[in-house]
Amino acid sequence: MDFSPSPRAAELAALVSAFVTDEIEPVHDAYHHDVAAARAAGEWAESPIMGELRAKARAQGLWNLFLPVGHDQPYAEKYGTHGGAGLSNSDYAPLAELMGRATFLAPYVFNCNAPDTGNMEVLLKYGTEEQKAAWLEPLLDGRIRSAFGMTEPGVASSDATNMAATAIVDGDEVVINGTKWFSTGVGHPDCKIMIFMGLSDPNADRHHRHTMVLVPLDSPGVTIERMLSTMNVYDEPVGHGEVTFTDVRVPASNILLGEGRAFEIAQGRLGPGRIHHCMRLLGQAEVALELAIKRGLSRTAFGKPLVKLGGNSERIADARIAIDQARLLVLSAAWKLDVGGPMNALSEVSQIKVIVPNVAQQVIDMAIQLHGAGGLSQDVPLSAMWTNARALRLADGPDEVHRGVVARLEIGKHL
Amino acid sequence: MDFSPSPRAAELAALVSAFVTDEIEPVHDAYHHDVAAARAAGEWAESPIMGELRAKARAQGLWNLFLPVGHDQPYAEKYGTHGGAGLSNSDYAPLAELMGRATFLAPYVFNCNAPDTGNMEVLLKYGTEEQKAAWLEPLLDGRIRSAFGMTEPGVASSDATNMAATAIVDGDEVVINGTKWFSTGVGHPDCKIMIFMGLSDPNADRHHRHTMVLVPLDSPGVTIERMLSTMNVYDEPVGHGEVTFTDVRVPASNILLGEGRAFEIAQGRLGPGRIHHCMRLLGQAEVALELAIKRGLSRTAFGKPLVKLGGNSERIADARIAIDQARLLVLSAAWKLDVGGPMNALSEVSQIKVIVPNVAQQVIDMAIQLHGAGGLSQDVPLSAMWTNARALRLADGPDEVHRGVVARLEIGKHL
Amino acid sequence: MDFSPSPRAAELAALVSAFVTDEIEPVHDAYHHDVAAARAAGEWAESPIMGELRAKARAQGLWNLFLPVGHDQPYAEKYGTHGGAGLSNSDYAPLAELMGRATFLAPYVFNCNAPDTGNMEVLLKYGTEEQKAAWLEPLLDGRIRSAFGMTEPGVASSDATNMAATAIVDGDEVVINGTKWFSTGVGHPDCKIMIFMGLSDPNADRHHRHTMVLVPLDSPGVTIERMLSTMNVYDEPVGHGEVTFTDVRVPASNILLGEGRAFEIAQGRLGPGRIHHCMRLLGQAEVALELAIKRGLSRTAFGKPLVKLGGNSERIADARIAIDQARLLVLSAAWKLDVGGPMNALSEVSQIKVIVPNVAQQVIDMAIQLHGAGGLSQDVPLSAMWTNARALRLADGPDEVHRGVVARLEIGKHL
Amino acid sequence: MDFSPSPRAAELAALVSAFVTDEIEPVHDAYHHDVAAARAAGEWAESPIMGELRAKARAQGLWNLFLPVGHDQPYAEKYGTHGGAGLSNSDYAPLAELMGRATFLAPYVFNCNAPDTGNMEVLLKYGTEEQKAAWLEPLLDGRIRSAFGMTEPGVASSDATNMAATAIVDGDEVVINGTKWFSTGVGHPDCKIMIFMGLSDPNADRHHRHTMVLVPLDSPGVTIERMLSTMNVYDEPVGHGEVTFTDVRVPASNILLGEGRAFEIAQGRLGPGRIHHCMRLLGQAEVALELAIKRGLSRTAFGKPLVKLGGNSERIADARIAIDQARLLVLSAAWKLDVGGPMNALSEVSQIKVIVPNVAQQVIDMAIQLHGAGGLSQDVPLSAMWTNARALRLADGPDEVHRGVVARLEIGKHL
């Protein structure tokens, strides 16, 4: 057992960390000011700061670092990934944590943000050459962004087989109908393509009824109806949209992997994505813990700094223990993915999806409490961080579904 | 022991409940639409719906129901309180719960909202005839609103002796300087007066250094600098403001009770207010539990309604148990206030201030989770309710301070 | 709403409290010494101290106080119940809490211990005159003790319909076969009778298959196989036994209420019993909290008394809040039982059965922790108290079953 | 990062696991029967089974496996350690978990039990050649056992500087006075020596007042006053004793390391010991989880196996997540000890000491609950396992002290 990072991971961590501290943090407020100003003017617009940061990051080779080893040639070399070869999940995970420290900017800066990363992975693994040329390369190149259409408003999407929007093959076309919501990213001006998951054959068995199709967002019949808030936040300019599809027609060549094979793709897609989400959340939790301690040292009540009052120090200890345990679990899941693939890490990936958002939520809540009323306000980033953690207890499968997976596999050992 | 409500309380509960259901709920969305539209246009404005609802409520005698028995004559009769005499805390508490079911409207509709209620109580108990005529009567009459200036941005306000803004007597005037924030209500166009708590004599003993002064918001030197969000919400048109005071001068006759007597007032002020807050939160928790069950019955996953899946039914049971226990504790605290005054209920009032916001927050969080992603969105009221509960873990004293009070009194029994 | 006790309850509380303090506590250690000495000598024997205490209690009319109003004439007068009439559940509940402070002695001293109380209630409500003369009167008179045979080793007894031991009517006899365990009280030399619940007609509907029969423990074919420990404790001389029944024959006149009517009896039997258990546990929790604070004040570490270290004071506050909430819930359940009978308090009785043992367990655990290693030892009563609370999370239905009842009733409101 | 065990650790794990399964488990009940029979006869005696198992284990080289690398030559070779060289903490940790599966036997069988392991480490690191010959060699050889005298009845021993028993140098002797309790192991007939920690110079600075001395238990003036229970369990034949020392005189050459250097020794002693304790507890937690699932699959209520009812499957998932996280944290702490010594793992060692006993306690409690009343009884090992976990929340420092260490180090990063 060796808990030290690989030399390549350690080197990249130093670069990413420096970039976050030296380049992103200083312009963080200006970026959000730009976006808020645009929105106040009735517009969802990207700040020019983003383009500048992306150019700088790419120039340093800090670009597409998520690209998974084994599927990356020749893309890693062509699209700037540092060193020209993909990283293992284990090696990338600590970088995701560092990006998570500036989670509302850094993943975009490094072209490592969801859902683009998952979509690029799908295209890498399952895309035809034509699909790759059309969508993967512009995504890797940072020219466009993408969305993923899965969750629907009318059904319990926690059971993915409930999905009712349709993708029916009609000759050499696919006809798309229905509504998706919480499609993250569709608010961004650069968002051009959605991977849409729809019901194609209701008579097939439960896990072969659905198909994934590439649907350009400018296709006739696609309408972004509105943007949805999560705990009062819209995450502009990215956003979470409700999108309707009315007799949308795309070529059958836009189907990914094959009709009825959506679940096959979905299963492979989510492992690394959950590692990324969880590590970013741990980056957030670390920031929250630091803020809590700094505040607790600088404010005094009843004659003592807050960290010395009542159970505050115990809560700080509990936060450290919870974060360290959760990180080790994510790193172990990443390692299991690396050595044995998604089927080797089924339980682990669900375990981290349960525990990490809960840990992050609790640590951030504790940090808010130590800040007093100001902790709730726009003056500190804790409310946005909390919202992000809370939303991730539902996104990519609610806690309850993942607990169910873990329980099923555990009980299965004794059947 | 008799857990049934008094006949008067039962009768009023029926009236308030019917008013909330028949009058308020049908216009709830329209009200919020008005306010949002105003804000989108750059304005914080009250909706005309509020005035109409208030007129109706007042016509039914459902007005100023919070007015505490014993201090209410002749106001109860004059300002419409049902039956012409104040209610005990025990009798009012269930009405506050019912108002809490529509918590962002009902308390205002019935002229029973914080901080006006607490301010009116202070004026009733400690105001001079002149002060009552100038401020209490317009408040009871619903012509103006008020704010309370206590929390400050630069210090840990959980220890109220930290308050640094000054209120210095200078001849027959008081000179006010400093900054208050999270002053709830200052965003409302009708808000005209603040009860300001400031340091008047730093050399006095810890609990006699501060003074309460009535400060009209249109006094020269008073500036509302900005509105503060709580978890991304601004609660317009009420709002929580940051207010600066620069050499503000008001007549010394605006002092309440006397120089250096702010803590004496504060101690008596908060008991009933905390009963109100807690009962309203329990109204919210009941709504959340109902929403959770209805959603859990109507959505199906893995072949079953959500309420039958995993631990969902246990969480529903736990919510019921937690709410019922918390309500009994609040009612018992109200009864102790009634029979023995604030000093008789010191521990109980702190106990409810700890437990109720936490219970409400957890029940609402559970309801969000049962709703899936939609639970986070603007389509259901749960995110606003959650924010309200979370904020009340800090407002009127953080959990930690109230736990400290309970512990001190408990340990004191054995000294 | 009036949270004060009735005058009769207040008067009795003073008497019971004084008796516990003045008579029971001084001989507590001597009593346990006697019992332990007997056991070391291979015997389960009652200490003579018990008889002396019972005589004194009875002489003061502190005897059979549990006797439920409405079913008690003429027994209350004849068998010493104070004042000659039964108490309501509300009035008895605070007395049970006081007895709980010396829970391993006081309930026996006052002839108010489980399962005798529940058995006497059953006989009062459902017994024939002959059954009452034979078993109720000696029980009320304190001449004998009794057991209740429900739980079985081979099935999940949490679902009472699983019970497999049989009670088959054969002419004018009933034939009993099978095994019961955790039959509390069978270790005591005075235990003479068991109310046995057995399967009498497997073809009847689920709730009419079982019958309750009075089985004298000296009937041929009844064997106490062994005594069972709970968390390493045997609770001698009372004990929890495993009892086998092999072709045991008793007259059919020993059937209670009628063949197939066991569930009807069971439903009514458990409401008051759960009130008693819960109040006694709250008495224990209060003792534990007092011990914790006294220890926390008297021991010093790192220069401070333990109560001032870290989160200890918060835990004391949390204990006070949890106990007070739980007590109010039990009192409210008792009141609902009094005003509307068992069907009026179904949810409440299950609610208290979930929450109170958990609260007691946690408070006692906290008290152990504050005592350090000594808290685990024979030098303080905390380990025995903890075991008692833990066992009550299973006895009379596990937490999970009662949560299920609460959830079912709650969800049922929306069906 | 590489989460796979080293080849040597993997090989040994297979051997230890087979030995536990094939040799220890079959005689587990017989062993406990022997011990209980002896105790019923008034004696604390070892079962002959222990000697037989130890001989077999030693013959396979499964002996003294805890011996730390770097301090072990020539002992590892001489005293049977497999392969003739010590194991790193990382390599030993998984073996400790396997031993923990049969925790009341296996550690003794492999001569890897506390407190002998810690005492042997102290002798290895700090003992003179004479001390090693006299006490280390017989311990390694399994001829004797040992105790550690630290905790005292009259003070809060969580603050070790409170220790009041004295060890005063008087010429070439040391004079020992005072009382120690919870001295584990003194009940065993083979226990011959105690490492005693006593106050030698009250005027020295806080961490140089105490001295460690080797005190043979047959020294005049040493009296084992009584054995202490932990949650009603005596752990015979090992036991936890209260030992008084009255003018006990031992040669000054029995001092370890030097006068006033007890804290220096204590600091180094506890790291590996806590790794061992925690890993053994995780072995217990795994057994409890297996028992819970097996029971939950085999028992049926309300028409379903228990694992499918309510929140049971969620609790199983939570147990798996908690165990896996805790294990990774322990392994990471072991690795940090290996690469940087005790000062490199101060926070980590305290972190695991907080989290692991709590996780084990909760998992075992869950398993008890799933077993119903039988889970509390002597028929399943869960009550003994629970007691062991509970006691370890106090032994080697209570949760609160270790949380304090973690908090202090965490806050220290920001000072």
Automatic annotation (TrEMBL), chains A, B, C, D:
A UniProt-annotated Pfam family: Acyl-CoA_dh_1
Chain ranges of the Acyl-CoA dehydrogenase/oxidase N-terminal domain: 10-142
Top-level lineage group = Bacteria
Asked if the record carries the keyword Amino-acid biosynthesis, the reply is no
Molecular function per GO: acyl-CoA dehydrogenase activity; flavin adenine dinucleotide binding
Name a biological process GO annotation. Answer: fatty acid beta-oxidation using acyl-CoA dehydrogenase
By sequence similarity, the record places it as follows: Belongs to the acyl-CoA dehydrogenase family.
Task: Please identify the protein, giving its name as recorded.
Answer: Acyl-CoA dehydrogenase
**What organism, scientifically named, is this protein from?**
Nocardioides marmoriginsengisoli
